[in-house]
UniProtKB/TrEMBL annotation:
One Pfam assignment: Zn_Tnp_IS91
Domain Transposase zinc-binding: residue ranges: 34-125
GO terms of molecular function: DNA binding; transposase activity
InterPro entries: Transposase_32 (IPR007069), Zn_Tnp (IPR026889)
Gene Ontology annotations of biological process type: DNA transposition
Official protein name in the record: Transposase
Chain ranges of the Transposase IS801/IS1294 domain: 167-231
Highest rank taxon of the organism: Bacteria
Length: 242
C-alpha cells in the first residue's frame, strides 16, 4: 500500500496547509476580523456567531501531527506513515470540505437515490426577506420544511395516491456567487412518489409556476408565525422557484 507522490517516488507526501496563502491569511488576520466585525460587517453578514472561532481554530489545527495522528501500515510490505487528524469542517477548510462533498455525493448515489427519474429544484428568497434568516439561522430549517411540504403535497396529489411519499434531498446554501448572504435551497426530488410496497408512481410533469405560488404562501405564513412579519399580502410576489 504505497501512496504515489507528485515526483512518482512511491512516497506518501502529506499536505502542508501552513504553507498556502489561505492558511496564512486566516492565521494572521482572524483576530483583527473579530475586532472590527460589528462595525464593518454585521449589517451585511449578520452578527459574529459564537461558533465561528471554533471553526477557525479547528481549521488552523487541521493536519497538525503534534495534535494527533493515525499510524497507517501496509500488511504486505510493512511500510507505514503518519496520517494527521483533520478538522472535518465543511466550507471553511478546503481540504475537508472537498472530501465531504465527494463522500456525500457517493453516499447519495450508492445508498439513497433510487433508479427513477429525478429533478433539481432551486428555492430562493429575495433580498427583502433575507435579513430575517441572517439574524435567525434557525429559520433556515423551517425554510427547508416549507420546500419539503410544497413538493410533497404537489407530487402526492399528482400521483393519485395520498399515502405515497416522494424522495427529496435538500441542501441549504447561505451564500451567493459573490459570497453575499443569499440563503437558498438546492433540492433533488423524484419525479413521482413511492408507494408503501416500494413501487414508484410517476407524477405529472411539475410546473414551476404552480409550485412557486404555494412556496410563496408557505414561506410568508412561516415568517408571520415566527413573528417576523405582520402581513404578507404585499409580499406574495417575491419568492422564487426554479
Amino acid at each position: 500500500m504505497l501512496y504515489e507522490s507528485s515526483n512518482n517516488q512511491g512516497i506518501y507526501s502529506p499536505r502542508e496547509p501552513r504553507k498556502n496563502y489561505y492558511y496564512r491569511c486566516v492565521e494572521e488576520n482572524f483576530e483583527v476580523l473579530e475586532r472590527v466585525w460589528d462595525d464593518r460587517y454585521q449589517n451585511t453578514y449578520g452578527y459574529w456567531r459564537s461558533h465561528i472561532l471554533d471553526v477557525i481554530y479547528d481549521y488552523l489545527d487541521c493536519g497538525n501531527l503534534h495534535l494527533g495522528f493515525a499510524r497507517v501500515k501496509c500488511e504486505d510490505c510493512n511500510k507505514e506513515y503518519l496520517l494527521p487528524f483533520s478538522c472535518k469542517r465543511r466550507a471553511f477548510c478546503p481540504s475537508c470540505h472537498q472530501r465531504r462533498v465527494v463522500e456525500f455525493g457517493e453516499f447519495l448515489y450508492t445508498e439513497v437515490l433510487k433508479e427513477v427519474s429525478h429533478r433539481q429544484w432551486v428555492f430562493s428568497i429575495p433580498k427583502r426577506l433575507r435579513c430575517y434568516f441572517m439574524y435567525d439561522r434557525k429559520l433556515l430549517a423551517k425554510l427547508s420544511r416549507c420546500a419539503w411540504k410544497v413538493l410533497c403535497d404537489y407530487l402526492k396529489s399528482s400521483s393519485g395516491d395520498k399515502d405515497s411519499v416522494p424522495g427529496v434531498v435538500i441542501a441549504v446554501q447561505t451564500f451567493g456567487d459573490f459570497l453575499n448572504f443569499n440563503p437558498h435551497l438546492h433540492v433533488i426530488a423524484t419525479d413521482g412518489c413511492f408507494k408503501g410496497d416500494g413501487d414508484f408512481i410517476k407524477s405529472v410533469l411539475p410546473q414551476g409556476k404552480d409550485i412557486e405560488k404555494v412556496f410563496q404562501s408557505e414561506v410568508l405564513k412561516m415568517l408571520k408565525k415566527e413573528g417576523k412579519i405582520n402581513q404578507f399580502n404585499q409580499l406574495s410576489h417575491i419568492v422564487n422557484v426554479q
